[in-house]
Design a protein that fits this description.
The chain is an alpha+beta fold. It has three helices and 15 strands. The chain has two domains: 153 residues, no CATH class; 113 residues, no CATH class.
Length: 284
C-alpha cells in the first residue's frame, strides 16, 4: 500500500472518530483505553499515525508490518509494542535508552528504535511527527511544524492498563482487564465471578467492610507501579477489605449528561480493581 493510500485510509478513520472524541470530551465521560473501544484514544493515535514519515525499507529480524487499521506497532525480541495512548513525544532520547535496530512501524519502513534493559516495557521510535505530544484545554493534540522526535511505544500487555500496587500485590481495574484477547489479563471465569460480586464501579459511599488503605502515589503514565501503594493513573484514595484481599476500591468521579438531565451530573464512587498476575518483571 502506498503512503498516499495509507493516509486516505487513516484519514477516513480519523475524521470519523474526531467527532466521537469531541463528544466524549464535552460530556466528560470516562475514557477506557482498549483499542477500538474508545474514540478519543483512537483519535489521538491515528492523528499521529497519519503524519508519520520515516526512511527507506530495511530488512531486520524484528520487522513487523501490522494492519493499518490498528495503532502503529513493532515487535522487538518477540514482544509486541504499540504506540502509547498518551502520545509521549520527546526531542531528546530519554536516559538509559540505546539504539537497538530498525523496524517497520505503522506501515512505514526503516524506523530506528531504542531500548532500555532496565525498562523493557518501553521502546522509543525516532520518527517524524506533527505534534509535541501536548494537548489543549479540549484534550486535542497541539500541532507543530513537522519534526523528528522520539515517540514512546509500550508493551501491549501494559498499554492502557489501569494498575494499582497495594502491599506489593498487583490489582487491575475491571474496566481495563481483558479476558478475550491473545494475552488475557485474567480468565473469563474469574472476571465473571468478580463482576457478579462487585461490578465494575460502585456509586456512593464506600461499602461496609472496606477500610482506607491510603493514597496511591502516581508513578507516571505507561508505568508499572510498585511498592506499598502506587498507581499508574493518578494519585488516588484506595480502600481494601481485610477479609477479601482479592479486591480493592479506588475512589473516582464521573459525569453523565443524559436527555433527562439538565446539564451535567457528577457522580462519586469507586472503581473496582481485582487481583492481577502481572506479567512484567518489576524493576529492582
Amino acid at each position: 500500500m502506498t503512503n498516499e493510500r495509507l493516509y486516505e485510509v487513516l484519514g477516513d478513520i480519523h475524521e470519523k472518530h474526531v467527532k466521537e472524541a469531541e463528544e466524549y470530551r464535552k460530556t466528560k465521560r470516562p475514557v477506557w483505553l482498549k483499542w477500538g473501544a474508545v474514540a478519543a484514544c483512537l483519535c489521538l493515535v491515528v492523528g499521529l499515525a497519519i503524519r508519520m514519515a520515516v526512511h527507506q525499507p530495511a530488512e531486520t529480524p524484528n520487522d513487523t508490518v501490522h494492519d493499518e487499521a490498528r495503532p502503529p506497532s513493532l515487535t522487538v525480541n518477540g514482544v509486541n509494542y504499540c504506540i502509547s495512548p498518551h502520545i509521549a513525544v520527546s526531542n531528546e532520547l530519554p536516559d538509559g535508552f540505546m539504539y537497538a535496530g530498525e523496524a517497520s512501524v505503522g506501515g512505514f519502513d526503516d524506523c530506528p528504535y531504542y531500548t532500555n534493559p532496565d525498562m523493557p516495557e518501553w521502546v522509543y521510535v525516532y520518527q517524524q511527527v506533527w505534534t509535541d505530544g501536548t494537548v489543549d484545554e479540549t484534550g486535542t493534540l497541539n500541532r507543530t511544524e513537522p519534526h523528528h522526535a522520539y515517540v514512546r511505544y509500550v508493551d501491549v500487555r501494559l498499554r492502557g492498563k489501569k494498575l494499582v500496587c497495594c502491599n506489593h500485590e498487583y490489582y487491575i481495574s475491571m474496566w481495563s482487564a481483558q479476558y478475550d484477547d491473545d494475552r488475557p489479563d485474567v480468565t473469563k471465569e474469574y472476571y465473571d465471578e468478580m463482576d457478579a460480586l462487585y461490578g465494575k464501579r460502585i456509586e456512593g459511599e464506600v461499602p461496609d467492610g472496606f477500610e482506607f488503605a491510603g493514597t496511591a502515589v502516581f508513578t507516571g503514565t505507561d508505568t508499572i507501579p510498585t511498592g506499598e501503594l502506587a498507581s499508574n493513573q493518578k494519585d488516588a484514595a484506595v480502600y481494601y477489605d481485610p477479609d477479601d484481599p482479592a479486591v480493592i476500591l479506588v475512589e473516582t468521579s464521573w459525569f453523565t449528561a443524559t436527555a433527562e438531565e439538565n446539564g451535567q451530573t457528577r457522580h462519586d464512587g469507586f472503581d473496582v480493581y481485582i487481583r492481577y498476575d502481572c506479567p512484567f518483571q518489576p524493576k529492582s
